[in-house]
Design goal:
35% of the residues lie in helices and 18% in strands. The chain is of the alpha/beta class. The strands form two sheets. It has a nine-stranded parallel β-sheet with strand order 1-5-2-6-11-10-7-8-9, sandwiched between helices. Helix 9 packs parallel to helix 10. It binds calcium ion.
Length: 322
C-alpha cells in the first residue's frame, strides 16, 4: 500500500490545483554554514513589563500564526520564496531582568556576528527587548537609525523603575547607541504619554509623528521623508514595531491597548514601504500578550507584518525603487 486514503502528505499535492504553500513552511531550522535572506529569533522576556504581560509567549504564537497564510501575493503576482532561518528563542533568566536583558544582548551579538542572514526578525517579548537588540545590532552593522511604530515614547528614566518596557529608547540614547535625531517615532498617541517624555523627545531631537500627523500627512509621506533624511546619516535602519501602535480594535492582545490608534492596513503599508529601502535590515515586533488576545488576532497581525516586510523587499528587488 502506497499510502492512506484522504491523508495529505506534507508538501505534496493530491488535488488538481498546485499545493498551497503556507508561510510557516518558509521557516527552516538553523544549521552551521546555512545562509538565507531572513533570520528569526525569539526574545521571550516580559517580566520587565510595567503592567502584567505574558508577551514572553508571543514568539511561539507569531510563528504559529504564519500557518494561517499562504506565500502568494496577488498584488505583486509573486510567491514569497525566501527562506527564514529560525534560530529559536534565546534563554532568559527565570527572575533576573537585568541578567535576561544581558543574555538577549549577548545572544544576539553572537547571532548577528555570524552574519547568516541579510535581514533579521526579532520577536518579543515586551518592548524592553529592543534595547538589547538595537545595541547588539548597531555594534555589528554600524550606525543605526530606528523607525519606531508605537503609541508611547518609551523614554522613561531607569532611576524610577528600572529597565522596563518604558525605557528602551531612553537607555539607547543615554548609552549613545543611537543619536536622538536618528530615532523616528510614529503613531504617538494623546493621553498615553506624559509631558516629561514629550519634552525629553523634543530636547533630544527625536522625530515624533503623532496619530494626528499619521492621519493628515499619510504613512508613506512620513516614511519617505525620514528615509531620505536618514539616508546620508546612518548605515542601517531598524524597524521597531510595538503592536500597541494599533487601535484596540485591531490589537486586543496588547497590555497597553486603547482607542485612537492606527488601523492595521496603515501599519502594514508603512512596514512594507519602509522595508522596500535596502538600508532597512531588521525589525522587531513586541508587546503582544497571547494570554489576553482574542482569537490570536494580534499575533496574526504580527505574522502579516512579517510577510509585508518580505513583500516590500521582494518588490523593491524586482523593480527600480522610486
Ligand atoms: Ca513601546
Amino acid at each position: 500500500m502506497s499510502g492512506f486514503r484522504h491523508l495529505q502528505p506534507t508538501g505534496k499535492a493530491i488535488f488538481k490545483d498546485r499545493y498551497t504553500k503556507k508561510a510557516k513552511e518558509l521557516l527552516t531550522t538553523w544549521s552551521p554554514d546555512k545562509k538565507a535572506m531572513y533570520g528569526i529569533v525569539g526574545l521571550p522576556l516580559s517580566k520587565s513589563s510595567i503592567s502584567y504581560s505574558g508577551a514572553a509567549f508571543a514568539p511561539g504564537t507569531i510563528r504559529e500564526a504564519l500557518q494561517g497564510y499562504t506565500t502568494y501575493s496577488g498584488e505583486q503576482t509573486f510567491d514569497l520564496d525566501d527562506e527564514i532561518i529560525d534560530f529559536g528563542d534565546l534563554l532568559v533568566h527565570p527572575t533576573d531582568i537585568v541578567e535576561s536583558q544581558q543574555r538577549l544582548y549577548e545572544g544576539l551579538a553572537d547571532i548577528f556576528s555570524a552574519n547568516d542572514s541579510d535581514n533579521w526578525f526579532l520577536l518579543g517579548g515586551d518592548h524592553s527587548v529592543s534595547f538589547s537588540a538595537i545595541k547588539a545590532f548597531q555594534e555589528n552593522f554600524g550606525k543605526v537609525g530606528v523607525i519606531q511604530f508605537d503609541a508611547h515614547h518609551d523614554l522613561r528614566n531607569t532611576e524610577d523603575g528600572g529597565p522596563t518596557n518604558g525605557t528602551p529608547f531612553r537607555r539607547l540614547l543615554e548609552d549613545m547607541a543611537i543619536d536622538g535625531k536618528h530615532l523616528v517615532q510614529i503613531g504617538i498617541r494623546d493621553f498615553a504619554n506624559a509631558f516629561e517624555y514629550h519634552t525629553y523627545a523634543r530636547d533630544h531631537n527625536v522625530a515624533v509623528y503623532t496619530m494626528e500627523a499619521v492621519q493628515t500627512e499619510g504613512i508613506e509621506v512620513i516614511i519617505r521623508k525620514e528615509m531620505n533624511r536618514l539616508a546620508n546619516e546612518v548605515d542601517v535602519i531598524y524597524l521597531s514595531v510595538d503592536m500597541d501602535v494599533l487601535d484596540q480594535a485591531f490589537a486586543p492582545g496588547c497590555p497597553a491597548t486603547g482607542p485612537g490608534g492606527m488601523d492595521s492596513g496603515t501599519l502594514l503599508r508603512g512596514v512594507r514601504f519602509a522595508a522596500s529601502y535596502p538600508s532597512v535590515r531588521a525589525m522587531d515586533i513586541v508587546e503582544i500578550d497571547p494570554t489576553i488576545d482574542i482569537r490570536n488576532m494580534t499575533s496574526r497581525v504580527a505574522a502579516y507584518v512579517l510577510l509585508e516586510y518580505m513583500k516590500g523587499k521582494k518588490h523593491a528587488a524586482k523593480s527600480v525603487h522610486g
